[in-house]
Amino acid sequence: MATGSNEPKSRYLQYLEMVTGSLEDKRRYRQYKARIKQLPEDYRTAVEAMERYLMHFGPADGAGAMAMYEDLADLFERSAADGTPIRDIFGEDPVEFVEAFMANYPIGQYRARERNRFTSAISRAAGEDTARDDRTDR
């Protein structure tokens, strides 16, 4: 059923991916989950909590999200191997950590752009001078 990288996809596979999403992304997600399952319990608990947060607030794009999850697995695999304490990974503010983590992925950067656009619009509405006019970002 799988095709080689140089082989064109059959109409069936094209239709299937149109309905279900990328089969490659699904394979990568299963591999990610298998990697997370191998972590020590406390690291796995932390990753699963971060994953839940990212599912709600992170990139929704399949390929972008998978790159982020794979990097997350890399981070926690290295941290577990080095014996890095969980709190040393996240710091005092886990939300700040996860927001900074998400900002490294292009699909997630739209949130920062929209936050800036929103803040500028409110400043303009309040009659405050803004140094940057975000209306040109559209």
Write the layout of secondary structure elements.
Elements: H1 11-20, H2 23-37, H3 41-57, H4 62-82, H5 86-90, H6 94-102, H7 109-125
Number of domains: 2
Overall SS class: mainly alpha
Instruction: Flag low-confidence runs.
Output: 133-138
Task: Tell me the major beta sheet.
Answer: none
Query: Helix coverage percent of residues?
Result: 55-70%
CATH fold annotation of the largest domain: c-terminal domain of poly(a) binding protein
The rounded Rg comes to: 20 Å
List the helices and strands in order: HHHHHHH
- In total, the number of strands is 0
How many helical elements?
7
CATH-defined architecture of the largest domain = Orthogonal Bundle
- The proportion of strand residues reads under 5%
State mean pLDDT (0 to 100 scale).
Answer: 80
Instruction: Give the distance, in angstroms, between the N- and C-terminal Cα atoms.
Output: 42 Å
Q: What gross morphology would you assign?
A: flat
Question: Could you walk me through the main structural features you see in this protein, from its secondary elements to its overall organization?
Answer:
- The relative contact order is 0.09.
- The protein is flat.
- The protein has 7 helices and no strands.
- It folds into 2 domains: 82 residues, c-terminal domain of poly(a) binding protein (Orthogonal Bundle); 30 residues.
- It is 68% helix and 0% strand.
- The longest helix is centred in the middle third of the chain and has 21 residues.
- The protein is mostly helical and 138 residues long.
- InterPro entries: UCP029876.
- This is DUF1048 domain-containing protein.
